[in-house]
Write a structure and sequence with these properties.
CATH topology: Rossmann fold
Shape: globular
Radius of gyration: 17 Å
Strand order of the largest sheet: 1-2-4-3-5-6-7-8
Number of helices: 8
Number of strands: 8
Largest sheet: 8 strands, mixed
Length: 263
Amino acid sequence: MNVSVEQAIPFAEKDGFRFLEVDVYRPADQHEPLPLLHYIHGGGWRVSSRQRTPRETREWTPNLFEQMVAAGFVVAASDYRYSGEALYPAAVEDTRDALAYLRAESDRFGIDPARVVLFGQSGGGYLALALGLDSSVEPVQGIACWYPVTDFSVLADDDPASNFPALWLGGPLSTVPDLVERARLPRLARPDAPPVLLQHGTADTMAPFDQSVRMHDALVACGARVELEPFDGAEHFFGGCDDATVRGLFARTMAFARACVSP
C-alpha cells in the first residue's frame, strides 16, 4: 500500500515550552473517511519520540505505521511534554489536546471522528487509558495497550519500576501520595468504558504484569469490556518473544481495533 505522510503538524503551543506536533499517515489513494488510530509512544513520559515505533517492531518492513494504515486506519502519532519539561498531568493534557485537534481537523485528514481507537505502549499505554477512560472526553471506541503502567500505588520507592513514575510525579512515590492516588487509572473504570485490550508479558520488570491485572480487574468489577492477553515469561518490549509471536500479537491488536470501529 502507498502511504501518504504529513509530518510535524503543530497542534498546540504550550506557554514556555516547544511546539507539540503530530504526524499523520493515510492511504495515498484514500477516497472516504477512515477510522482514526491514535498512536501514543512509550518512553516513561521522559524519552523516545512519536516517530519511533516500539523497539520490538523497528526492523519490520513495511514499518508499523504502514501496517496500521494497511489495517484500514488513518494513523496519527502525537507529541507530549516529557517529565523533564513538565510534570504530571502535562502529558495527559497534551494527548487530550492532540485528539481534540485531530477530531477538529477530521475533514483535512480524512478521519471519521466518531470512530477512534487509542493505541499506546508502556507510558503511552498509560496515556491511552487515561484519555480513553476519562468520562469528560468525547468517547473513543477502543483502547489497546502493550505493557502499560496503570497504578503507581503498588510500586515501592526501591522498585526499579517506580523510577519513571517518580520522575513524572516530581518525587519518590511515597512522598507524593495525593498525586499517586490521583494518577491511579483503576479508579477511572466505569461500566460504559470503551472496550480495552491489554497485552503484557508476565515477567515484565519495567512495568510489572500486575499493572495490567489491576486495570483488568477494576474494569471487570464494574462490568466493562476488557481482555487481558498475557505472554508467559516475556519481559518489557515483549522481550523473550520471537518475531513471529510479536507479529501475531500485533495482528491481534489490529483485529481488536478493527472490531471496535466496525458497524
